[in-house]
Amino acid sequence: MISILTTHYNRPDALIFCLKAIEDVKLDLDYEIVVSDDGSTKQNIDIINRLKIDTLVLASKNEGLASNLNKGIKACKGKYILYVQEDFLMMPEFKTVIDEGIELLESHTLDMIRYRSNYHFKNLQPCTEH
What we know:
This protein is of the alpha/beta class. It contains 4 helices and 4 strands. Strand 1, helix 1 (12-25) and strand 2 (31-37) form a beta-alpha-beta unit. The two termini are 22 Å apart.
């Protein structure tokens, strides 16, 4: 099983789109959805409580992304964690690369995978065609 961890703060509409995109990919693996909220308003928490989430981690006040991420990681039960922010939209093509990514992790070829970033890192090295 993998954990799909999403951090959240007062953006339930973005979270709804994010979770719908994950669901629409129809991943062929066992996964859990963990949402770590960083002190959103009660109104927004009420919306989130109606969503299909396996684990919801709540903070009593906003403590920042790093704290929120750490709380979410502690709640994850999967062997691997796929971290996505609430405005992330998983593309259908992800289904074709997730198995390859897990294989690379299992074989200890890699210990972390960053599937995509809008920031250009100087030292990223491709390890497969994907």
